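Closing statement on the DQA sub-project.
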Amino acid sequence: MTRVLVMNGPNLGRLGIREPDVYGSTSFDELAKQCREAGRDLGLAVEVRQTDDESELVRWLHEAADSGVPVVLNPAAFTHYSYAVRDACAQLTAPLIEVHLSNPAAREAFRHTSVIAGVATGTIAGFGTDSYLLALRAVATLVSGR
Ligand code: DQA
């Protein structure tokens, strides 16, 4: 089974409680379970992590780079300004799918810039928790070489 790391940045641990009108009512634990289950159906061993700490996220990305593991990343607010996360993403050798629950392009101006998008294989945004499931499908397709 191909291993996939699903990484989540700040405030995403509060899914379900945090601005449910924007991010939905699904909790982070439920999202993690859905990702693992979808992964099993796609032949992927999915590990889901969340951190509010930029340096921890950078360390996890180095780990993924060193082990050649595909990454699904919701960088959360780091999307818009973290060159440290962007530079860590640039070191990945396997596919990187950037995901967002909401559609940042349809929100406040500061969310219209992603410093991550330029080093991602692709971006999926605006489909709520389905964004993650679509990203895992994309990873499965990419690693199968179809
Ligand atoms: C988000 C969008 C970001 O602008 C925001 O800072 C988040 C969540 C999303 O999933 O829609 O924390 O990445």
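The mean pLDDT is 97. With this model delivered, the sub-project is considered complete and its resources will be redirected to Aim 3.
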